[in-house]
Amino acid sequence: RRDQAGVPLGWIEFGADVTAQRRAEWAEEASPLHYQNVFEAIPAAVCAVDFSAARNMALEWLKNVDVEPRQWFTEHPDEVRKLMRATLCLDVNDFTVELFRPPDRSGMLGSIDRFWPESTLPDYIDWIVNALSGQNTWQREIRQRTYDGVEFDSWFTSRFAPGTIDEGYFIVTVIDYTEVKRSQAAIRQSE
């Protein structure tokens, strides 16, 4: 308000507590950084995998099938390879580059097909059936292949992030299991 001469008679102050809003903004800014720190800190090969195209293809094929998915995939290995080619690696950590030995990080991105030897088709089928059935975790000892074609024993784990099963994105970890297998064989041989 002002008097007749236009001089203010008083002041009105307005304040708003924006603490909650700022905390939400800070959390949003920190989330990708936190994710990246965790991604790089894990002492295993870690890959962000997009299974969505492969998932959609598999569901389309299985629409009119009267047999169990596992049986159908087993009877159609060429289709399984198509699914492998449609399953994409989007990001990897430094341990992945060290383990799989591509020329650089970009050599790991794209189709995962090259890293799955022919002998692992049953494992991939099991992984696919598990994912299609809505199971969020799958793990197993399997053979993997490095960028330059050397096969090795690995402990493979995949896990859908909460709420992303239908989207088809998951995190995969691979641990080189070669030395563990050698040690186990040596122990068995010595007994």
Explained architecture:
- With 191 residues, the protein is an alpha+beta fold.
- The chain has seven helices and six strands.
- A six-stranded antiparallel beta sheet has the order 3-2-1-6-5-4.
- A hairpin with a 5-residue loop joins strand 4 (137-145) and strand 5.
- The model has no long low-confidence stretch (mean pLDDT 86).
Question: Which ranges are low-confidence, i.e. pLDDT below 50, for 5 or more consecutive residues?
Answer: none
Provide the spatial order of strands within the biggest beta sheet: 3-2-1-6-5-4
Helix content: 40-55%
* Tally of helical runs: 7
Write the layout of secondary structure elements.
Elements: H1 19-41, E1 45-50, H2 52-62, H3 69-75, H4 77-86, E2 88-92, H5 94-100, E3 110-111, H6 121-132, E4 137-145, E5 151-160, E6 169-176, H7 178-190
Antiparallel strand pairs: 1-2, 1-6, 2-3, 4-5, 5-6
Helix pairs in contact: 2-4, 3-6
What's a quick, concise take on this entry?
With 191 residues, the chain is an alpha+beta fold. It has helices at 19-41, 52-62, 69-75, 77-86, 94-100, 121-132, 178-190; strands at residues 45-50, 88-92, 110-111, 137-145, 151-160, 169-176.
